[in-house]
Structures are given as C-alpha cells and as structure tokens.
Specification:
With 583 residues, this protein is α/β, with parallel strands linked by helices. It has 23 helices and 18 strands. The strands form 4 sheets. The protein has a 7-stranded mixed beta sheet with strand order 11-12-13-14-15-17-16, with helices on both faces. α14 links the parallel β7 and β8. α6 runs parallel beside α7. It is globular and about 75 Å long. The model has no long low-confidence stretch (mean pLDDT 92).
C-alpha cells in the first residue's frame, strides 16, 4: 500500500487520457487530506477525479437544499462520510430512554438524504459505515444492553447494509473492517483529532482511499474477471511431478492447511463468477491428477474454465488462455509462488496483475485479502454459470478448428436467441453487463439497476436484450441495446424520425458468431414497426474498446461529418444473412 506522501506526489503526475469522474465528498469532519488521498489513489487506477469538497459538517445543507453547490456540481459519484466519534457526541446528547432507537433514528435520517439525492441526481452514492468505538460505560456487558452505544453502533451498521440491499445506487465503503484490519491505534489518533478535526489518521488514509477508489473504478468497469493459478507450491504444497499425488501438501495438517484455505477462497471466487484458469509447467495428465483423485482437493476440474499445463513459456500460455476467454489482460490476475515466473509474465504482459506473493504460504491469503483484487459493484445468479460457459467456449474453439469454412461452422452451432425488451428478470444482468463490458461497448455508458429500470419504464426509449444458446450450451444474456427515440421534439434533434443507439454492449464471448448482424437486423425490425426512418450510432473511443472502432462502418452505416457518428437508412437496409434463429 502506498503511503500518504506517495499519494500526494501522484497529484503532480499528468492525467491526460485518464477517465475523468466528478466526485463529491461530504463529511462531518475535516476531509482535506481524505480528498488528497483519494485523488492520489485515483491516479494509481488511471482515474482523474474532479472533486467537489463540501465545507466542514455541511452534509445536511448540501443534500437537503436543492440549490446547493452539490447539485450545481452534478456529481457522478457522491461519497458520504460520518465518523463514529461524531456519532458518539450525538448519542451522548440523546435522552436515555431514546437511546434504544438511536440506530433506527439515524437510518431514518439517512433515508431522508437518499430520498433527496434520488430526486435531484442520478449519482451513485458511496456511504461509509461506522468504525467501532466503545465508550466502555458498560464494559463487556454492553453487548447485552440494547441502549449502549456499541450495541446501537453495530445495529446501525447492520441496518445500513439492509438499506444498501434495498437501494440500487447505494454502496457501502467498509471503514469498520479497515479499522479492524489495521488496528484502531493506527486508524484514529485522539491528539490529532483534538487539534485538527481529522478523524482518520495519515497512516490510515491510504486504506480509506484505496477502498473508495476501488468502488469508483468498479463503476467504470475496471475490475478483475479472472484468476490464473500456478499449481506447485501455489495451489498445493510440493511438486506433483516429483513428490507424487500422495505426498503433496494439502488438507488439515501443517502447511497443507494454508493451501486448503487458499483453495476455498478461490472456490468462493469461482462461485461468485470469477473465471478460474490454470497455467502450470507440468505434464497435463500429471497436473490434472490431484483435481481428479486427491480426496482433500477443494478445487476440481469442473471449477477450472481453461486448463493449460505444458512445458512452454508461461507468458505464451497466458496469451493462449486470453485468446480463449477473449477478455483483456488487465482483467486477469496471475498467482505464482515463483519470483522468476512472475517476472517473466510481468515483463512480457505488462497489463496483467501479478501479486508479489510472500514466501510463506501461510501468509498468501492475508496478503491477497489486503489487495482487494476482485472488487465488484454487482452480482447476479448468472455469475455462478460463468465457469461452465467458458468451459463450453473452450470446446467451441477446439470444435471450430475442425472446420475450414466459417459459415459451415456457424451453421453447425444451431444458435438460438431469445430477443425481447428489458424486463424484471433481465434488468439485473443488463446493469451488470453495463458495468463489466469494456471491449464491445460502443459508448461505454454505465448503468445501475435503478437506471436500467427507469429506462425500461420510460416512453423515451426502446430496448432489446439478447440471449444466445447453441449445441454446446446456454451463454445466457449476452447483449443489450438501448435506443433513444428522437422525434416530435424529444431527445436529440434530427430532421427525420430517428432512433439513436444510446447503448450497445455485448459479451466478447460471442464475437464472430454473427451476433452483431443479428442484433442490427433486430434493431431495424424494431425501427420499422415503430415508424422510424433512420438509425444513428455513435462510437466513443476508450483505451479498451478499440475492437469496435469500425463496428458501424462494417455493418453498413454511412459516415457523417463527425468521424464518430454513423447513420443508417432503415428503408435501404437489406437484412443480413445470419445463422441465428429467434426463439
């Protein structure tokens, strides 16, 4: 973790080409150094954070006054930070008989803030939970006294979590866990607070900033999707080729316990939707044997999306994995105990994340926990299917190699798509795809579930969602399109009734199967049914979506004076030949 001095130095670095995010910071205590740390951490994540910092202890005024500077700033993300120490002061002034409902009353106030914010802005809200602070009035017995401060504080954090579950654009920054991890003595310095009103110490600021920026980066689709594992002395102890399956270290005895717990962590990541791959210098049959036969293995072959074990260069093997998964190298994490292999991969694939594992396997997990590599702002039941989907994709790649003609291959897949407007079932997945899609994303606009729900219910838009299944399996929902109606003085101004493609994103897993043409055919059909003569598309370039730079050109759109704006005459369009059947 960078220290605060290093984060301040980052503020002098150039940020040209970085994604600019408007962030508002509202706090009940001094936030100047908090803002500096967050902006400096943003540079580490290629984010240029344009920050509005509210005046000291002005949360109520900024949120409840519709003409406040907060709303003038038009923030994309709003960070709200209340300290436990300030909360204790409020608790001390509360009548004794009212302390039983202290947590509930504070949640009511937070709900008022959220209601006011949602009425005036579409910003995503990051709310810091409360670090634990015990006034020791009851000692350990406070856990049995409902009116005690620590009881109410813990209850408030729980109620805040429940509120976040119910509120789509509300996200929790877990300061309580940060303090528990680094220690209260490091997080909170009473002498500094007394003189400066700072409630977070200089040493704790980088941890605070790291947590906040990780959430903001996840909003922008900057998060890890895949973990690639070495095997010997990483996934298990020992060398399978030398020690044999019966002698590798795994299970509940000695250091084997550390490897077992590491595997449980990877298994939970896989169940959450993180892709798990293997890259090992080994004979494949030998490397697979523990997954198939060892009774103490937590991970099984069914958990591995792509398994590469041979004696070739690991950087080259990771490139093979990337080609099969079709995700960016910057979405991958490579975990290997060998410093030499880590260096080779870093030098050959600089975009990939390669953690510098400790020498002692017992320290692997705590080190990886601290990196928080797999931050996310969404989760759906679809995620649990991701490993199987990528396993099927590997089968498709192998199957395709048996064809010399691409059309014959596509015909043989027996592809079917369920094509329909957004509905309550698809909205969570569409919001998630919006957050995750970076490469095939024409305008890279991010939406929360609440955003998508409002669009689906609006008369100003038409929407389409697409699933895709074939002989190998179901890919689930893989594409979404949002079309803005531009007629009768609404939306953008055009001389003829026009549908503007506000959003078109698609999973890269289904590229080169005709899905792009099928989607455009569906858009044109929808335009004709609703009386629109023209379709306009826009490409907004980002560092990650270069693959769709010529998307509209390749589909037959006409160029305009603006090199990133393309138009299509609906009446002149000829439906493209495809091998996908509508369900």
């Amino acid at each position: 973790m960078l220290d605060f001095a290093q984060l301040k130095k980052n503020l002098k670095k150039p940020v040209e080409g970085f994604k600019t995010i408007r962030l508002a910071v509202l706090g009940d205590s001094a936030t100047q150094f908090v803002v500096q740390a967050i902006k400096g951490m943003g540079v580490e994540h290629s984010l240029n954070l344009n920050v509005f910092e509210a005046e000291f202890n002005q949360i109520d005024r900024q949120i409840l006054d519709p003409s406040s500077e907060l709303y003038e700033f038009n923030a994309e993300v709003i960070l709200i930070f209340q300290s436990s120490h300030k909360l204790l002061q409020k608790y001390n002034k509360t009548a004794e008989n009212e302390r039983f409902s202290f947590a509930e009353e504070n949640v009511v106030h937070i709900k008022q803030w959220l209601s006011a914010l949602q009425a005036k802005t579409n910003a995503k809200i990051i709310f810091c939970n409360y670090t634990e602070e015990d006034d020791q009035v009851f000692g350990q017995y406070a856990n049995k006294v409902e009116s005690s401060f620590i009881f109410q504080l813990r209850k408030l954090n729980y109620l805040l979590q429940e509120l976040a579950v119910q509120t789509n654009n509300l996200y929790i920054c877990d300061l309580s866990t940060i303090q528990n991890t680094i220690g209260r003595e490091k997080f909170w310095l009473p002498a500094i607070y007394t003189n400066t009103e700072m409630v977070v110490s200089i040493d704790a600021l980088p941890y605070f900033a790291h947590a906040v920026v990780k959430i903001i980066a996840a909003f922008q689709g900057f998060f890890k999707k895949c973990i690639i594992l070495d095997l010997d002395n990483t996934t298990w102890g020992g060398v399978i080729g030398d020690d044999g399956i019966e002698n590798i270290q795994i299970g509940q005895l000695g250091i084997g316990k550390a490897f077992t717990e590491f595997q449980y962590w990877v298994k939970k990541l896989q169940q959450r939707g993180i892709i798990v791959a293997v890259c090992s210098k080994n004979t494949e049959s030998v490397a697979k044997e523990p997954f198939e036969k060892h009774p103490d293995m937590v991970l099984r072959l069914s958990d591995i999306a792509v398994f590469v074990a041979n004696w070739e260069n690991k950087a080259d093997n990771i490139r093979k994995i990337q080609q099969i998964l079709n995700i960016g190298f910057d979405s991958m994490v490579f975990v290997d105990d060998n410093p030499f292999e880590r260096t080779i991969v870093r030098e050959n694939i600089p975009q990939i994340c390669v953690p510098e594992l400790p020498e002692d396997p017992a320290l692997y997990l705590d080190y990886l926990y601290g990196l928080n590599l797999f931050e996310t702002v969404s989760y759906s039941g679809e995620d649990a299917k991701r490993t199987e989907q990528y396993q099927k994709e590997a089968e498709r790649v192998i199957f395709q190699e048996s064809f010399t003609n691409e059309d014959d291959f596509l015909k043989s897949l027996d592809m079917i798509s369920d094509t329909k407007p957004f509905d309550d079932f698809s909205i969570p997945r569409i919001a998630q795809l919006s957050q995750r899609s970076n490469q095939f994303n024409l305008r890279t606009v991010r939406y929360t579930e609440e955003d998508v729900k409002q669009i689906a219910q609006s008369n100003e838009y038409l929407t389409l969602s697409f699933t895709l299944e074939d002989k190998f399996g179901d890919n689930g929902l893989i594409c979404a399109v949002i079309l803005e109606k531009c007629d009768d003085g609404t939306g953008r101004k055009y001389s003829t009734p026009t549908l503007f493609i506000d959003t078109w994103f698609m999973s890269c897993r289904v590229l080169k199967r005709g899905m792009e043409a099928y989607t455009l055919n569906s858009i044109v059909e929808l335009a004709k049914v609703n009386g629109y003569n023209q379709i306009v598309g826009e490409y907004i370039p980002t560092p990650k979506n270069e693959i769709v730079r010529d998307h509209y050109k390749n589909l037959g759109f006409e160029a305009t004076d603006n090199e990133n704006i393309w138009k299509l005459d609906v009446e002149k369009y000829k439906m493209k030949e495809i091998y996908i059947t509508k369900k």
